[in-house]
Each structure stands twice: as C-alpha cells, then as structure tokens.
Backbone:
C-alpha cells in the first residue's frame, strides 16, 4: 500500500527524520508511538506533502500503490488528497473554521473533491454524519464548531476524512484531546470504518493502550529514528530498553497496570 524508503527530513538545520523506512500492507493498521518531538507528525506531513515552509526533504522515496508521491504536481495532489489519502487531525474542533457552519464546510470539502451538486453534497454529508452515530445531523450541520463538543467535532473530522472511502487514512492523535469514554467511542468508530471500507490506517498516538488495542503493528520512535517495530502481541515482551521505559511509564493502580 505505502512504502517509505530511507526518508530524511530537516527543519532548518535540525533533523526531524533520519533514514526512516516503513512499509504498510493493504488493510493494515500501524501505530507510531513516541515522545513529543520524536518525528511522528513529520512522517504523516511528509506523506501528505503538507510540511511547513522551513522544512526540506534531504533524501528518500515514498511510494503509494507504486506511485512516487515526491514526484507529484499540484494537480495530482488535488486528486489524491481526500479521495485516496485522507487525514484526521489531533483536534478537529480547532482545525474547522470557527465562523462557518459545519454544513458549509462539509459541503465545500465534498465539492472540492468531486463533481457532486450542492444538494448531493448535502445528502452525502448527512449520510456520513449518521455513520458516525451523530444524532440530529440537521442541527449539527447548522452549528458552528464552538457550539459542539470535542467528541462531536472529532466525529465530524472522521466523517469528512472517510467521505470518499480513502485507501489510506492518516490519523494524528485522533483521541488525545478527548475524555476516556469519548476516546473509547472514537476508537470503536475508527475500527468499524476500517472493517467496512477496508482502509489502511497509519496513526500517531501517545497512548500505548490505544496503539495496542487498534494496531496490527506498533512502531516506536525517538529523535527521528525507529527504535523498535513489533507486532501488537509482542509489544509487552519487547527486549528494547526504550520500549520497556515507555511501558513502565504507564501509570498503575495498586500494582496492576491497566492498559
């Protein structure tokens, strides 16, 4: 599905990724875990070609379905983003335009990636919001982001990302800004969509419990490099010292680790 080879990315003079390589199979879920500044988000931004201006790709290749992403032009990206590769941001509520209704933004998103009419786009947006188990979708479409809860906004972000059944979904900390109950609900919604659409997912998380529950394989990063890469059922038996430190950092209650 996607193959990253020896990718090195700099922010000005600082190396954010160093010789990073990763191959993900179709319909697989891979989670990237690591402390802040380890290069996790840079991986997703490089795949989607949305790196900040002060960045530079020093070396490496990225292939998506045998197509080189680093060689695409702006028109190619317009066709690829949203349709074949989509992204869910860490806090969708802050990514949405605060002075426009959810409906106007959702319709604009659909029309930007398709030839659907405004009426067709409205109907599709309603269908996607219902798939995310949101109630009163008519009211939600008329609402502004600040009028909705964090969980509702995150579901809207997922609904938008999944509208065109992308082959690859990038998820940047999709549950970190939510309370524990809402996190669990969002995880279940993502897994349900993964099963329904057979979407490959590459996600970032600080939460080892979420990674271990959702992912097929877990990649551990530090200082822009891969430290460990294991199947989910081998994570807690890893012999890598840094992985052990991450696991030991999980809070425990009365001697039991709830993860």
Residues:
């Amino acid at each position: 599905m996607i193959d990253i080879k020896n990718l090195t990315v700099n922010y000005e003079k600082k190396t954010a990724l160093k010789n990073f390589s990763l191959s993900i199979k179709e319909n697989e879920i891979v989670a990237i875990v690591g402390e802040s500044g380890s290069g996790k988000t840079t991986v997703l931004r490089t795949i989607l070609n949305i790196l900040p201006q002060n960045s530079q790709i020093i070396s490496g290749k990225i292939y998506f379905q045998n197509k080189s992403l680093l060689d695409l032009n702006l028109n190619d990206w317009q066709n690829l983003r949203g349709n074949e590769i989509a992204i869910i941001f860490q806090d969708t509520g802050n990514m949405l335009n605060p002075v426009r209704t959810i409906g106007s933004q959702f319709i604009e998103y659909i029309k930007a990636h398709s030839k659907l009419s405004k009426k067709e786009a409205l109907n599709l947006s309603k269908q996607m919001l219902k798939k995310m188990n949101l109630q009163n979708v008519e009211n939600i479409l008329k609402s502004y982001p600040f009028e909705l809860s964090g969980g509702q906004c995150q579901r809207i972000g997922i609904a938008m990302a999944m509208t065109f059944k992308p082959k690859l979904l990038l998820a940047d900390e999709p549950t970190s800004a939510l309370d524990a109950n809402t996190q669990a609900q969002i995880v279940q919604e993502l897994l349900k969509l993964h099963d329904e659409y057979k979407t490959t997912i590459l996600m970032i998380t600080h939460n080892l419990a979420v990674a271990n529950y959702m992912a097929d394989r877990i990649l551990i990063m530090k200082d822009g490099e891969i430290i460990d890469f294991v199947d989910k059922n081998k994570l807690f038996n890893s012999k890598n010292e840094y992985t052990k430190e991450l696991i030991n950092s999980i809070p425990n209650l009365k001697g039991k680790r709830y993860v």
Summary: The longest strand covers residues 14-24. The radius of gyration is 19 Å.
